[in-house]
Amino acid sequence: VDRVAIHLMTTLLRADSSASTISPMSQVTTPAENQLHLGWTSGLNRRRYKRLLALIIIVCIGFNGLWRVRLDSSLYRGVARSLANGEGLRFSGDVNSHVYPGFPLILAGFERVFGDSPIPALLFITLLACLSLVMIDELIRLRYPDWVASLVLLGTGLNYLFIRQSHELMTDIPFLAGSVASLLGWEWMRQATSRRQRM
Predict the structure, then answer these.
(1) What is the longest distance spanned by two Cα atoms in the chain?
(2) Which helix (H) or strand (E) element contains residue 177?
(3) Helix (H, G, I), strand (E, B) or coil at 90
(4) What is the pLDDT of residue 11?
């Protein structure tokens, strides 16, 4: 680790002259402008789609179709079962005011279509996790150099909590996907030059 740190510091010091030409991030409009080239960053920019596919495969390998019973996920499934049966937002017969109805409504829809199996909902969460990786990569590339996007993508896709939540019936991954989709849509709207692009 020390040797790697020393190598990185030496590389950064050598790149001082090129680093001085970088504009503030508020002025960066495309990733092609003012990129900091440190030698090792060019390796991160190659094989973008292969790296993204590898991370998606890693997320999918963890899928086993088993519902890990936890306090929050059992609450979501219980409320979803009540909604699917037409009993409203109830859990164990009592009116529930602890969870927002959005995620239980999604789970209730899966339950109405596919029955009591948790597999379709788990597949949906895993699909949202893979979609989140694609959107994160696209979002970061709109504002930062390619190597920064590659590091952010690797840091997210190889994160233990991200991989674990990709197979849980929890709101974390749907919230992440919705947040990143909103930010990506906002950036696309800001960069749009025509009405068609805005649409």
Answers:
(1) 68
(2) helix 172-191
(3) strand
(4) 57
- Give the pLDDT confidence of 84-135 residue by residue, as tens digits: 888 877 777 677 777 888 899 999 999 999 988 899 999 999 999 999 999 9
Q: Which amino acid is at 103?
A: F
Nearest to 79 by CA among 58, 62, 100: 100
Phi, psi of 181 (to 5 degrees): -65, -40
Closest CA to 126 of 166, 157, 66, 68: 166
CB atoms within 10 A of CB 13: 9
What pTM, to 2 d.p., does this model score?
Answer: 0.73
Q: What is the distance between the alpha carbons of residues 10 and 65, in angstroms, rounded to a whole number?
A: 48
* Residue 39 backbone phi and psi in degrees, to 5: 85, -65
Helix (H, G, I), strand (E, B) or coil at 51: helix
pLDDT for 139 beyond 70: yes
Whether the Cβ atoms of residue 141 and residue 31 lie closer than 8 Å to each other: yes
Residue 106 dihedral angles phi and psi, to the nearest 5°: -65, -45
Which amino acid is located at 80 in the chain?
A: A
Q: Rounded to whole angstroms, how far apart are CA atoms 175 and 190?
A: 23
